[in-house]
Write a structure and sequence with these properties.
Length: about 325
């Protein structure tokens, strides 16, 4: 993501990748004014007996956000609202702005919260990190996945047909070559020597890869490698940080230690100044803005946790909000 701050609370955003769409989903809120380029039907009707001739008119409009739609790991973000700024004949009509990598929009808010600014800045830094790909291999099975800011996206699952390993390895090599640029890091993982056989087969045809041992050659193995953070590229990813935070929370819960979860418990702890780290799921981010403001005012760390991965779903099941405490408040 590339951003440019302008006057009167306006920020211009260039979308570089799919991760940027997730960040924007969490930044945008109802009431924001968003400017983007759209195409609207321009119907011209002549003789009623003739078929209507329909053309599309390109225009730049500003809509007041009512709804933001984003499906995890999709390549589209849909913003819906009424047109406030644009050609006179479309003012007040509903319009959707559909965003994909390569698009640009401008966002105007009455007030940008520190968390919204931080999310945008994190998106800018995220674009500077190399995208990581995974190739999981075990006998007759290959899984290719990509690490996003908010989770791991499975891209392809291949199964061997017949008994010829070389034919299967050829299919796998073709798939990973099509999906990934050579300069991007690739982690090849799995149990036993099957992955090593593939590496020998692909000798000279793959660049910038690392081979790691894992118990499985599918998504389970990929998550195992992520959790262990054996590779330096994985140690400072958003996903790795989020998983460590949730693991720490679960550890505190297991020993009846310094934790709180759910709206009332967390609010009470925040009012007492007892919260060290606040975690809010991305699905409940807007619902708990009052808690985020309390956390910001008290100097607590604030983390918006993606629900696209297993640990984020655990937080969602705890009510979508939890905290690690400095001390346990009385009562």
């Amino acid at each position: 993501m590339k951003i440019e701050e302008r006057e009167k609370g306006e920020i211009s955003v260039h979308i570089d990748n799919i991760d940027d769409l997730w960040y924007l989903k969490n930044v945008l809120r109802a009431g924001d004014l968003v400017f983007g380029t759209v195409y609207r039907k321009d119907e011209q009707s002549g003789d009623m007996k003739r078929a209507k001739k329909t053309a599309r008119r390109r225009m730049r409009v500003g809509i007041v956000v009512e709804k933001v739609e984003f499906q995890e790991f999709s390549d589209r973000l849909r913003i819906v609202g009424k047109i406030r700024v644009g050609p006179e004949d479309v003012l007040g009509l509903y319009q959707a702005i559909n965003l994909a990598p390569g698009d640009e929009i401008s966002i105007i808010k009455e007030r940008w919260s520190p968390e919204e600014k931080e999310l945008l800045n994190e998106a800018v830094k995220n674009a500077e990190r190399p995208q990581v790909y995974f190739l999981g291999l075990e006998h007759g099975l290959a899984t290719i996945a990509a690490l996003r800011a908010y989770g791991v996206q499975e891209l392809v699952s291949l199964r061997k047909r017949g008994d010829d390993d070389d034919e299967f390895f050829g299919e796998v090599l073709s798939a990973i070559t099509e999906l990934r640029k050579d300069e991007l890091p690739l982690i090849i993982l799995g149990p036993g020597f099957y992955k090593d056989n593939f590496v020998r087969f692909a000798a000279g045809k793959l660049k910038n890869y690392t081979v790691l041992q894992a118990s499985h050659g599918d998504m389970r193995g990929i998550y195992e490698v992520l959790k262990s953070s054996l590779h330096k590229i994985l140690q400072d990813t958003r996903l790795s940080r989020e998983e460590k935070l949730i693991d720490r929370l679960l550890e505190e819960i297991s020993k009846e230690g310094l934790y709180a979860y759910g709206m009332e418990e967390v609010k009470n702890a925040l009012n007492m100044g007892a919260v060290e780290t606040l975690m809010v799921s991305d699905r409940k981010y807007r619902e708990y803005e009052s808690l985020i403001k309390l956390a910001h005012d008290s100097g607590a760390e604030i983390h918006i946790i993606s629900t696209a991965h297993e640990k984020g779903k655990i937080l969602e099941n705890l009510g979508g909000v939890a905290a690690i405490l400095r001390f346990r408040p009385a009562g």
